[in-house]
Design brief:
Layout lengths: L2 H15 L12 E7 L4 E10 L2 E10 L2 H14 L4 H15 L21 H20 L5
Antiparallel strand pairs: 1-2, 2-3
Helix pairs in contact: 1-2, 2-4, 3-4
Bound molecules: zinc ion.
Length: 143
C-alpha cells in the first residue's frame, strides 16, 4: 500500500469513527431513508433548506465503514451550499465512483476514489448520494 493509499484510508476510518453531522435534525424539511440491501447499509438523511441553501443536514445510520464515512464526508461537502451545488456534487461523485473522469477537484471525497476498483463496495459509497438525490427531489421549491 502506498503512502497515499494509507492517507486516504485514514480519512475514511476517521469519518467512520467520528462521523460529522451525525444525529437527527429536530426540524427538517425532508427526512429520507436509504437502504443498500447488498451490504445491509441503512441511512436516514435529514435536510433543512433556507434561502436556497442547505442550512443544516445530518444523518443517522448503520452499516459498513464505507457507507457511514461517505455520508459524513458528503454532508461536510454540502452543508451551507446551494441545493444545485449538492446535486452537481452528487453527479460528480457518482462519476468518480464509476471510475469516470470528473473534471473537478472533489477534495476529501477523493479518498473514496479507490472504491471504483471494488465493485462490491460501490453501492456502499453511492448509497448516501442516491439518498441525497431523492431528498433533494422532495425538498420544497420555496425553501
Ligand atoms: Zn456497505
Amino acid at each position: 500500500m502506498s503512502l497515499l493509499d494509507e492517507l486516504y484510508q485514514d480519512v475514511i476510518l476517521d469519518h467512520y469513527r467520528k462521523p460529522r453531522h451525525h444525529g437527527e435534525l429536530a426540524v427538517a424539511d425532508v427526512v429520507q431513508e436509504g437502504i443498500n440491501p447488498s451490504c445491509g447499509d441503512e441511512l436516514t438523511l435529514y435536510l433543512k433548506a433556507e434561502g436556497g441553501r442547505l442550512s443544516a443536514a445530518s444523518f443517522v445510520g448503520e452499516g459498513c465503514a464505507i457507507s457511514q464515512a461517505t455520508a459524513s464526508l458528503m454532508l461536510g461537502a454540502i452543508v451551507g451550499g446551494t441545493r444545485e451545488d449538492a446535486a452537481a456534487l452528487s453527479a460528480a461523485f457518482q462519476r468518480l465512483i464509476r471510475g469516470e473522469d470528473v473534471g473537478r477537484d472533489l477534495g476529501d471525497l477523493e479518498a473514496l476514489a479507490g472504491i471504483a476498483k471494488l465493485p462490491a463496495r460501490v453501492k456502499c459509497a453511492v448509497l448516501p448520494w442516491k439518498t441525497l438525490d431523492e431528498a433533494l427531489a422532495r425538498l420544497p421549491e420555496a425553501s
